[in-house]
């Protein structure tokens, strides 16, 4: 499936033409947890149910039509008493970092409560009339993508209020890579809550089991957890999201490049926000930075006051760069530990840092970069002349330990 834009809004559309017949068939057979009603109906029937959901919480049928979880559960006579909305809101209209307000779903009348505003977690008062909590939000496999932080806090709230949490699992489009440093405890934040690599190669359900099993919830509490797994899915399955997971990830390429291009958000370099191809281009208002030119602009629902708004930015168009890992049938199923030619690379970050005469001159939010990267070493490593391979070697031992630790929690072999 692919993403198209109509008046800058993401819509569900036809199958991706670039997919091989075999890959398309494999994806068509994938059944997300939310669609497996028989697997969870007994857990929800005659219960008061809360659901954490957004625009990605959909079930796509064989004909390409889609129904939202909330509508589906209500049609099955499940008593959904409230919705909790993460970053970007329940219908996915909020921009990155935009505070989400409480609301009421106009279609169903179900109240919506924000967990990306004054509070980042459901309060005990809001959970007083809840028996079961359902989490179903599409992740992209990067530690700083805040949907998994929302899941972490929901797990804590459920554990502290003795509520059963049911996760409708979904594929991870970046499941074929594990890369980047384990988050340092000093840089624990909402964009780095758990001690995992930058890209961790797990579905949300698998990660939730690891969070529970490793005692990462506050006070070491355990959440009563049930994961409804994806059917017909393995770590060899190439999966293209049927709907954009957030406004600035409108394409499969953006989803694949986001884990390494997101680091540019802590710099003076534009990562393409304010264009139709965010996270598929990088540039700076200086002609010496490259031949490709783009001009960030205000796009309602995607970018308000983007970096370098109205200024021509010169740099790289990444829409023609090849996609590796599961995009390459010869490599399908291999676990890539951040090879320079894999889906995760520091090449562009290092190259642009050199153009500035050092990463210290390019990064204007040092604390922000440390939160994204998980430690404060990257600027020093680059400016000392370390190659990508040498930087990668500094995190590999920790990543290898992480791979061993996560094995008991994997659902897809």
What is the strand content?
A: 5-15%
Write down the secondary-structure element order. Answer: EEHHEEEHEEEEHEHEHEEEHHHHH
Sheet of most strands: 7 strands, mixed
Which segments are poorly predicted (pLDDT under 50) over 5 or more consecutive residues?
1-24, 94-99, 329-341
First CA to last CA: what distance? 24 Å
C-alpha-based Rg, rounded: 21 Å
Principal-axes geometry comes out as globular
Structural class computed from helices and strand pairing: alpha/beta
Number of DSSP helical runs: 11
**What is the helix fraction of residues, given as a range?**
25-40%
Arithmetic mean pLDDT: 88
Biggest sheet strand order reads 7-8-6-3-9-10-11
Number of strands: 14
